[in-house]
């Protein structure tokens, strides 16, 4: 698939969403640039090699400014990079100009409707929005996986220590929760985030073969910040008859 072109083509002329403005601001300030890639990157590369998918076209949803995208490409994957942040994509183009033609500004709707990929990855991206929006995003991403292909996911989990002012929008039957950061929060005012339960994510991934079973990852926040992150990680393989 050749991505339909230039950064911003889908979003030109429209008012940016709250999330777009937030991430443009974060990436303009250099967020994540000095951090190493997530360990899940090596798991994705290992799985792609195991199933002979390193020569297939892949898709990374939410590439940001390249923290995980560039190591995956360096590891041998040919990934289309998708993100709503023009600033993040501009940073990738600056660091890896040879990848410019593989970057798309927008969401999944910016890709051809029939495009399918051997590897689809989304790391720390699918939790944005309400439960309904987050689950719809995961299902839409899974639909982009070609038969026999891999889907890798990492999302914020219940048990994360939320240290900023917020309100609870919903407590859900699967044990998950949706919150919205309050206007007085200078970091993410008004941003909505869904905290996945194991049961909620397992249901979404059901019917696919486990390659990396759901893993509970707990890490400290960045230096100088209190609290811990908790995230679910998994890699599944889409069946040929799914």
From TrEMBL:
**UniProt-listed InterPro entries:** Methyltransf_25 (IPR041698), SAM-dependent_MTases_sf (IPR029063)
Q: Which Gene3D superfamilies match?
A: Vaccinia Virus protein VP39
Which residues belong to any copy of the Methyltransferase domain? 60-149
Q: Which Pfam families match?
A: Methyltransf_25
The protein depicted here goes by the name: Methyltransferase domain-containing protein
Which organism's genome codes for this protein? Yinghuangia aomiensis
The organism that produces this protein has a lineage beginning with: Bacteria, Bacillati, Actinomycetota, Actinomycetes, Kitasatosporales
């Amino acid at each position: 698939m050749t991505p339909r072109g230039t950064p911003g083509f889908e979003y030109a002329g429209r008012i940016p969403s709250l999330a777009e403005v937030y991430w443009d601001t974060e990436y303009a300030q250099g967020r994540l640039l000095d951090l190493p890639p997530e360990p899940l990157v090596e798991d994705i590369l290992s799985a792609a090699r195991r199933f002979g998918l390193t020569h297939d076209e892949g898709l990374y949803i939410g590439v940001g400014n390249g923290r995980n995208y560039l190591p995956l490409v360096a590891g041998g994957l040919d990934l289309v990079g998708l993100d709503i942040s023009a600033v993040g994509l501009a940073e990738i183009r600056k660091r890896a100009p040879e990848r410019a033609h593989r970057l798309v500004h927008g969401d999944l709707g910016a890709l051809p409707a029939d495009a399918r990929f051997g590897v689809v990855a989304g790391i720390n991206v699918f939790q944005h929005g309400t439960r309904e929006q987050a689950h719809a995003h995961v299902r839409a991403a899974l639909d982009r996986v070609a038969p026999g292909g891999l889907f890798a996911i990492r999302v914020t989990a219940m048990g994360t220590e939320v240290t900023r002012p917020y309100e609870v929008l919903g407590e859900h039957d699967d044990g998950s929760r949706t919150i919205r950061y309050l206007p007085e929060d200078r970091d993410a005012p008004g941003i909505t985030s869904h905290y996945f339960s194991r049961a909620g994510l397992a249901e979404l991934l059901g019917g696919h073969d486990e390659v990396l079973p759901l893993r509970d990852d707990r890490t400290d926040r960045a230096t100088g910040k209190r609290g811990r992150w908790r995230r679910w990680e998994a890699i599944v393989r889409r069946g040929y008859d799914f």
